[in-house]
Amino acid sequence: MSAVQQRGSLTQIELAGVTGLSPATVSNIVKELTAAGVLHTAHSTRNGRRALQVTLARGLGLVAGVHFGTRSLRVSLADASMRVLADQRMPLAPDHRADTGLQRAALLVREMLLDVDAAPDELLGVGVGVPAPVDVRTGRIATVGMMRGWDEVDVGGTLSDDLGAPVHVDNDANLGALAEARSGAGAGHDAVAYLRVSHGIGGGIVLGGRIVHGRGGVAGEIGHVTIDENGPICRCGNRGCLETFAGAGVLLAMLSESRGPLTLRDVIDAARAGDPGCRRVLFDAGQHLGVATASLCNLVDPEIVVVGGQLADAGEILLGPMRTVVEQRTMPSVSGPVSVVPSEHGATAEVRGALTLALDRARVGGALGVSA
Ligand SMILES: [Zn+2]
C-alpha cells in the first residue's frame, strides 16, 4: 500500500518490481486488498500488453492542497493516490486580509468536495503553502512583516476549525521543493534545492525525502541571502537581499520608465520576441540568482537545483546566465557542475506539494491504514 500511495498508480508487475515480492504474491495481496475496499484495480494497455493497474480506492478518503500566492489562491483536491480530482485558481487582492483569504480557501475546498460528490468527513487532511517562513510546529508565520495582515494568524487552526480536518502549514517553496523531489525534476535525487522565482523569491531544500526546516522555519530562504551588503532595504528588513535584485516587482519597476506598466508575462513574451531591454533585465536577474545559488551550493551541495515560479517561464534567457554564474562561483568538483534545471510541475508545484504533505501526514497518522 505504501508503494501504491507513493507512486499513485502502477501495474501489478511494477508493484512486484518495487516491493521485491513475486508476481503471484502481489496478485494475491492485491486481490485481498481490493476485496477489502482498500485498493482499486482497472485493466489497462501498456506498450501493447494488457496490464492490471493498481491504485488506492477512492473510499480511502481525499486530501486538499491550498497555495496562497502573493496574488492568487490555488486549491486542489486529490484522492489517496494523488490523482487530482479538481483544481481551481482565483485572484487575491495584493494586500488581502488573512481572514478573507482563509475563508475563500475553506469555501473552495467545500465546493470542490460537493462537486466530486464527497461528504465533508471524507477529507483526511489539508496541506497549506504560504509565501513566508512558517514555524511548522505552530502553523504560524515565523517572520513578522513578510505577509501583510497575516502576522500572528493561526493559519492551521483557523482552517482546521472551518473544515473539520487536520491542516498542515508550510512555506510554499518548501512544498514546491517536496513536489519536485518526489515526482518532478528532482525525482531520484537525495539532495534537491528548489527556487521559486516570482514576485517574491522563495527556496526549499529536501534532503533524503524530507524538507529541511531549521530552527524556526527559515531554512532555504534564498530570496533573503545577501548579495550586496550595501544594497536596498528588503521587505524582511535586511539590506541587499537577492529578492531586492531579482524579484519580479523590482524587474518590472526597472522597465516601467522605458516601457510603461508591464506584467511579468509581458516581459517574458517581449524577451522571447527579442526586446533587448526585457532580455537584459532577465539576464541580470539570472546572474543575481546564480550568485545566491552558488552560495547555497557551497553550503548544501545539492545534486540538482530546480527553478520554478513564474519567472522560470523565461527558460534559458534566465537559466543560461544563472547556470554560468553558478559554475563560476561554486567550488570546482570532480563530479562537474551541479545541474540547474526548470521545474517539471511548473505553476502546480506548490499545490502538489501541499497535497503530498497532507497525504504524508494522513499516512503517518494512520488515517490511510498504512504506517509510515
Ligand atoms: Zn530580505
Describe this structure in words.
The protein is an alpha/beta fold. The protein has three domains: 2-56, Orthogonal Bundle (Arc Repressor Mutant, subunit A); 60-174 and 350-364, Nucleotidyltransferase, domain 5 (2-Layer Sandwich); 187-343, Nucleotidyltransferase, domain 5 (2-Layer Sandwich). Helices cover 39% and strands 23% of the residues. It has helices at 2-7, 12-19, 23-35, 98-115, 155-163, 172-183, 243-246, 248-259, 264-272, 276-300, 316-329, 349-364; strands spanning 9-11, 39-46, 49-56, 62-68, 72-79, 84-91, 123-130, 134-135, 140-141, 167-171, 191-197, 201-207, 210-211, 304-308, 339-342. The strands form four sheets. A five-stranded mixed sheet has the order 6-5-4-7-10. The protein has a five-stranded mixed sheet with strand order 13-12-11-14-15, with helices on both faces. A three-stranded antiparallel sheet has the order 1-3-2. The longest helix has 25 residues, at 276-300. The model has no long low-confidence stretch (mean pLDDT 92).
List strands and helices in order, with pairings.
Blueprint: H1 2-7, E1 9-11, H2 12-19, H3 23-35, E2 39-46, E3 49-56, E4 62-68, E5 72-79, E6 84-91, H4 98-115, E7 123-130, E8 134-135, E9 140-141, H5 155-163, E10 167-171, H6 172-183, E11 191-197, E12 201-207, E13 210-211, H7 243-246, H8 248-259, H9 264-272, H10 276-300, E14 304-308, H11 316-329, E15 339-342, H12 349-364
Parallel strand pairs: 4-7, 7-10, 11-14, 14-15
Antiparallel strand pairs: 1-3, 2-3, 4-5, 5-6, 8-9, 11-12, 12-13
Helix pairs in contact: 2-3, 4-5, 6-12, 9-10, 10-11
The structure holds zinc ion.
